[in-house]
Amino acid sequence: MKKAVMTSFFVFLIALTVALFSETKWLTFINVSFYIAQPLVIIGGFRFIYEKGFFDVTISSFKRLFRSPVERYMADEQRDDASKKQWGATLFFAGLVVTGATLIFSYMN
């Protein structure tokens, strides 16, 4: 949760920096925040789904299908989940927070 808040703060800081050099500061701040938040939501959402194992069954089925006969008799694959870095949820929820804030800010304008 702390990483998502820091990421959201960083997005707002970038948008504020860009808006300071613009003529319409408030509108530019809202637009830049929204434009930065949307890739965070999309990439973070896809990564979050992948990290939760949604595609694991499909991937393992394709690996078994295209394995050579010699490899089929070898030991099963062992996954090491501890080494997997999980950053999808952070990006996804930070993007949602920024998107929600920009929607609120746009109605205040």
UniProtKB/TrEMBL annotation:
The chain crosses the membrane at residues 32-50, 87-108. It comes from the Bacteria. Residues 30-87 form the DUF3899 domain. It comes from Anoxybacillus kestanbolensis. InterPro entries: DUF3899. The lineage of its organism: Bacteria, Bacillati, Bacillota, Bacilli, Bacillales. Pfam families: DUF3899. This is DUF3899 domain-containing protein. The keyword Transmembrane applies. Keywords: Membrane, Transmembrane, Transmembrane helix.
